[in-house]
């Protein structure tokens, strides 16, 4: 694997292999000494043009636990904020001997450009590009889902997510998490339904490999997991997408009443950070079926697996 | 518009050219005019005449571009009147309309005369400035259209291209105002509110790429409004670069109703689709955006049935750094002067939709008529101005932007093999391109022509 830019870069075999490696990585994280020598001498640059403390820390921890040298480059206060281009930043990183770049950028396709514009030959891992994709988030969601469902099935489950029914609820239009999840979950055989008000579903969503619905109450009784997306407050009211936060919560917020519409075994997921009281209530976020905290810790294992496969090659897997 | 004195230039005999794709014909050009035409191989070259052997070449009247960005004044790093004129001549054009979105904006008689003079100094094509509709393209106050019309540049086409004249009252006034100078408002139809931050065509591909959409309705709604306004005030409207099947339907309806409307389509909208954006290469970023295959098919049909009158390049050169970046940061626009004819041949001639006589109509006669360029777009007949282009339709070449004369390297046709090669271009009987290259010495040095050289 040369780059990880989109969840579509992973076929079923690669996706399950990556989740399997992540399981191994997670096992090492239960040990007293968490650090592996795997990427000793390799340099991973976290290049963050957007603030994202959680994702940045998760990637930092993943790279450090694989013994890579980690350079974190945040756009704020750097030459980038003085107008340096993505291209020049890429050339600089190349000159400094970076082996992989973990890129978070506000422009959709920025990771594609960094990988394919001919500026440098480093491996690129997309850590979120605009409203396009966030493949490691989808991987950690799938990992979390697979783990929980395997526990429940007592191990009687394959490496994928065949037939698992997942609802993704919220601002699909602006969500890179939704795009990556639809692609990856479909690759793994799951059945995805997107639930959002019509204003927050993109024109063209009909061609995506999933179903859509405007009716959360109708969807909830038939799913194995519900993924709640973060909804930006600025989309409400003056933003024009939804008349008000209250209107959104009434239609699409996961509250106690809706929690009880779910089958007993169904999971509640959220990529964080949560707007409690807007898209998810405390009862839903903190209940026993919530995987929110687990998703965070699984994020490190999944990112270790992604960096490992990117830099140590999949033959070694 | 008349031109530098050509009476001392040597005669040119074009031998055995296929006139508009038809019979082999000899054309003798003298004194800036087509002096004689005769069946192929029957004319003797006068003493001292330049002889151009044109067997197998198609002769067309010199092409006229209704929509060119020459960037000068202000963005000479992107293009100049000189480099753009070279590109135009090499592409078979003998006249181009230079868009008004320069810096300063071409919204006064002074700026349009400056551009016009620069064009005459270079002397490879006739440069006809387009005047801005509103001051500074600001969309708030009408520019002095009358002053630009009566200037030496004799502006007849007015456009805020790049921006839409969105205010309906202002558009109405502009349409009314140009009636008095036999002008036309060339509208860049784009509802600004529906396209805030828009990056590409809104549809299946944009949904996957997470790029903000530029919906077809944002173009179509403005065209619908404008044809009704033009009808209401009895004025002449030209619609720039229509890009959607819906726009075609509206223009077709308006023409059937008798509205005095004309429309243009770009070569890129006749060949390329939004599928190309999947790699996020900004060379495919343009406004209006590349649309779907169904739109491309509708646009081709519209040229064939006359609903769309003109193919115009929207040649929009940009410096490398404005395209060598992430998609959202990149400039919109594509070069087009040196690829227009090959693309038209590929999309419209080889598909059987147009004959070469139709090509002459959409790339020469119709744009000249719309721009009121009296001595361009004329038939290749005795007594007519000797603007002509010779095309080798059998040639096929891979597009190599680094070999182009434009300063812009942003050709979306890069790497495509396209048919057709411009072999020669004659401006008022004077060869400016021969054997596919600029004729040494054809280009003016930058000295202003002698006073009295123009009428």
From TrEMBL, chain A:
Taxonomy, top ranks, is:
Bacteria, Bacillati, Actinomycetota, Actinomycetes, Kineosporiales
> For carbamoyl phosphate, which residues are the binding ones?
54-55, 104, 134, 137, 272-273
Tell me, what's a Pfam family for it?
OTCace_N
Q: Name one GO molecular function term.
A: aspartate carbamoyltransferase activity
Q: What is its biological role?
A: Catalyzes the condensation of carbamoyl phosphate and aspartate to form carbamoyl aspartate and inorganic phosphate, the committed step in the de novo pyrimidine nucleotide biosynthesis pathway.
Family membership, please give it. Belongs to the aspartate/ornithine carbamoyltransferase superfamily. ATCase family.
Q: Which residues form the signal peptide?
A: none
What this protein catalyses is:
carbamoyl phosphate + L-aspartate = N-carbamoyl-L-aspartate + phosphate + H(+)
Residue ranges occupied by any Aspartate/ornithine carbamoyltransferase carbamoyl-P binding domain in the UniProt entry:
2-146
Key words, A-Z: Pyrimidine biosynthesis, Transferase
Q: Which PROSITE patterns does this UniProt record tie to the protein?
A: CARBAMOYLTRANSFERASE
InterPro entries, A to Z: Asp/Orn_carbamoyltranf_P-bd, Asp/Orn_carbamoylTrfase, Asp/Orn_carbamoylTrfase_sf, Asp_carbamoyltransf, Asp_carbamoyltransf_Asp/Orn-bd
Q: What is its EC number?
A: 2.1.3.2
Going by the entry's taxonomy, the superkingdom of the source organism is recorded as: Bacteria
Q: How does it assemble?
A: Heterododecamer (2C3:3R2) of six catalytic PyrB chains organized as two trimers (C3), and six regulatory PyrI chains organized as three dimers (R2).
Pathway, per record = Pyrimidine metabolism; UMP biosynthesis via de novo pathway; (S)-dihydroorotate from bicarbonate: step 2/3
List positions binding L-aspartate: 82, 176, 230
Could you identify this protein by its name?
Aspartate carbamoyltransferase
State whether keyword Cell membrane applies: no
From TrEMBL, chain B:
Biological pathway:
Pyrimidine metabolism; UMP biosynthesis via de novo pathway; (S)-dihydroorotate from bicarbonate: step 3/3
Q: Which CDD domains match?
A: DHOase_IIa (cd01317)
| Record: residues binding substrate | 69-71, 101, 287, 318
Q: Name one GO molecular function term.
A: dihydroorotase activity
Cofactor note as given: Binds 2 Zn(2+) ions per subunit.
Under which EC number(s) is this enzyme classified? Answer: 3.5.2.3
Q: Which residues does UniProt mark as catalytic?
A: 314
Top-level taxon of the source organism? Bacteria
InterPro entries for the chain: DHOase (IPR004722), DHOase/Allantoinase_Hydrolase (IPR050138), DHOase_cat (IPR024403), Dihydroorotase_CS (IPR002195), Metal-dep_hydrolase_composite (IPR011059), Metal_Hydrolase (IPR032466)
Q: Which cofactor does it need?
A: Zn(2+)
Q: Which Gene3D superfamilies match?
A: Metal-dependent hydrolases, Urease, subunit C, domain 1
Residues that coordinate or bind Zn(2+) 2: 161, 188, 241
Q: Where does Zn(2+) 1 bind?
A: 67, 69, 161, 314
Chemical reaction(s) catalysed: (S)-dihydroorotate + H2O = N-carbamoyl-L-aspartate + H(+)
Q: Which top class of enzyme applies to this chain? A: hydrolase
- Which residue ranges run through the membrane? none
- List the keywords (alphabetical): Hydrolase, Metal-binding, Pyrimidine biosynthesis, Zinc
- Where does the Dihydroorotase catalytic domain lie? 58-245
Family named by the database record? Belongs to the metallo-dependent hydrolases superfamily. DHOase family. Class I DHOase subfamily.
Q: What does this protein do?
A: Catalyzes the reversible cyclization of carbamoyl aspartate to dihydroorotate.
What is this protein called in UniProt? Dihydroorotase
This protein's species is Pseudokineococcus basanitobsidens
Per UniProt, what is the name of the gene that codes for the protein in this document? Answer: pyrC
């Amino acid at each position: 694997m040369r780059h990880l830019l989109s969840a579509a870069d992973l076929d079923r075999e690669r996706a399950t292999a990556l989740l399997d490696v992540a399981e191994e990585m997670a096992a090492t994280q239960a040990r007293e000494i968490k650090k592996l020598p795997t990427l000793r001498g390799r340099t991973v640059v976290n290049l963050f043009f957007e603030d994202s403390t959680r994702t940045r820390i998760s990637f930092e921890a993943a790279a450090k636990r694989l013994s890579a040298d980690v350079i974190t480059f945040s756009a704020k206060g750097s030459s980038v904020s003085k107008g340096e281009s993505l291209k020049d930043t890429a050339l600089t990183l190349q000159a400094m001997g970076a082996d992989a770049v973990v890129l978070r950028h506000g422009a959709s396709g920025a990771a594609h450009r960094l990988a394919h514009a001919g500026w440098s030959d480093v491996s690129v891992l997309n850590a979120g590009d605009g409203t396009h994709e966030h493949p490691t988030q989808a991987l950690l969601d799938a990992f979390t889902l697979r783990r929980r469902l395997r526990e429940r099935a007592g191990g009687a489950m394959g490496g994928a997510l065949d037939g698992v029914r997942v609802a993704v609820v919220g601002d699909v239009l602006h969500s890179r998490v939704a795009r990556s999840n639809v692609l990856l979950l479909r690759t793994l055989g799951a059945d995805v339904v997107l639930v959002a008000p019509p204003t927050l579903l993109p024109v063209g969503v009909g061609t995506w490999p999933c179903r859509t619905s405007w009716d959360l109450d109708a969807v909830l009784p038939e799913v194995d997991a519900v993924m709640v997306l973060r909804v930006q407050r600025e989309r409400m009211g003056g933003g024009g997408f939804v008349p008000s936060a209250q209107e959104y919560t009434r239609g699409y917020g996961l509250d106690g009443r809706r929690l009880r519409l779910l089958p007993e075994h169904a999971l509640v997921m959220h990529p964080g950070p949560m707007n409690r009281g807007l898209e998810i209530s405390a009862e839903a976020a903190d209940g026993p079926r919530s995987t929110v905290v687990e998703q965070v810790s699984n994020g490190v294992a999944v990112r270790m697996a992604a960096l490992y496969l990117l830099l140590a090659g999949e033959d070694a897997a | 518009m008349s031109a530098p004195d050509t009476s001392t230039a040597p005669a040119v005999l074009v031998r055995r050219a296929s006139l508009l794709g038809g019979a082999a014909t000899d054309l003798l050009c003298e004194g800036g005019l087509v002096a004689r035409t005769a069946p192929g191989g029957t004319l003797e070259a006068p003493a001292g005449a330049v002889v151009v052997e044109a067997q197998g070449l198609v002769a067309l009247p010199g092409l006229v571009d209704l929509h060119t960005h020459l960037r000068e004044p202000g963005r000479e790093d992107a293009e100049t009147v000189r480099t753009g004129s070279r590109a135009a001549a090499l592409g078979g054009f003998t006249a181009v309309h230079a868009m008004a979105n320069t810096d300063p904006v071409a919204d006064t008689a002074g700026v349009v005369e400056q551009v016009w003079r620069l064009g005459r100094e270079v002397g490879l094509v006739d440069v006809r400035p387009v005047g801005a509709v509103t001051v500074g393209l600001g969309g708030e106050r009408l520019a002095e259209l009358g002053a630009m019309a009566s200037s030496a540049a004799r502006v007849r086409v007015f456009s805020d291209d790049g921006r839409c004249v969105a205010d309906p009252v202002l558009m109405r006034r502009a349409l009314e105002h140009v009636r008095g100078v036999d002008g036309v408002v060339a509208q860049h139809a784009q509802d600004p509110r529906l396209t805030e931050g828009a990056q590409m065509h809104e549809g299946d591909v944009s949904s996957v790429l997470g790029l903000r959409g530029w919906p077809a309705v944002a173009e179509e709604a403005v065209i619908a409004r404008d044809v009704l306004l033009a009808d209401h005030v009895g004025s002449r409207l030209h619609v720039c670069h229509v890009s959607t099947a819906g726009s075609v339907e509206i223009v077709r309806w308006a023409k059937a109703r008798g509205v005095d409307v004309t429309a243009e389509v770009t070569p890129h909208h006749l060949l390329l689709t939004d599928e190309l954006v999947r790699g996020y290469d900004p060379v495919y970023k343009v406004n209006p955006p590349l649309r779907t295959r169904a739109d491309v098919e509708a646009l081709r049909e519209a040229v064939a049935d006359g609903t769309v009158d003109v193919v115009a390049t929207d040649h929009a050169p940009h410096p490398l750094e404005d395209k060598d970046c992430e998609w959202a940061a990149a400039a919109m626009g594509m070069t087009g002067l040196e690829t227009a004819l090959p693309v038209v041949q590929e999309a419209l001639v080889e598909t059987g939709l147009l004959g070469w006589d139709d090509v002459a109509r959409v790339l020469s006669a119709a744009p000249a008529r719309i721009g009121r360029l009296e001595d361009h777009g004329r038939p290749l007949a005795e007594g007519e101005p000797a603007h002509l282009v010779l095309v080798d339709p059998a040639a096929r070449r891979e597009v190599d932007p680094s070999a182009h004369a434009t300063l812009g390297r942003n050709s979306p046709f890069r790497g495509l093999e396209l048919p057709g090669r411009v072999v020669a271009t004659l401006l008022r009987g004077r060869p400016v391109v021969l054997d596919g290259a600029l004729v040494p010495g054809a280009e003016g040095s930058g000295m202003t022509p002698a006073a009295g050289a123009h009428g």
